[in-house]
Amino acid sequence: MALLHDKGLCQYLLQNLVREGEVWRWRVNLEGLQVGMSEILGFPTTATGRQYPGATLFIYGSESDYVTEAHGGAIQDYFPYARLRMVPAAGHWVYSEQPEAFIALLTSFLN
Question: What percent helix, strand, coil does the chain show, rounded to 5?
Fold first, then answer.
């Protein structure tokens, strides 16, 4: 059994724990996530040559390795009008770790 020591991650995951009568269960499909994890963590190479022509915003945290400068070329290939915005002092869950910065970027993009 793995232990999680990150309080924020624990709180995030516990949002998916629900009580049904006397029984606790996960709201998400854990088996499906486990089976598809390699696809979830990978990049969709099956979309080669296809593009989304609309405006797209990628918001990522400076402390996360989910989006890096190395991904910039691939992102631009698939999303030619993409804007990448890095939020300092945030990990993967930017909206939770830096909500004001996240909302400001999102609002600016949508306006």
Answer: 45, 20, 40
pLDDT at 44: 67
Report the candidate in 40, 98, 100 with the shortest Cα–Cα distance to residue 66: 40
Per the CB < 8 A criterion, the answer to whether 81 and 53 are in contact is: yes
CA–CA distance, 102 with 68 (Å, rounded to integer): 18
> What are 25-46's pLDDT values in tens digits?
988 888 898 898 888 777 666 6
Q: For residues 22 and 97, what is the distance between their CA atoms, to the nearest angstrom?
A: 33
Rama region for 21: left / alpha / beta (φ>0; ψ in -120 to 50; rest): left
Instruction: State both tokens at 70.
Output: 């190395």
Report how far residue 74's alpha carbon sits from residue 84's, in angstroms, rounded to the nearest whole number: 12
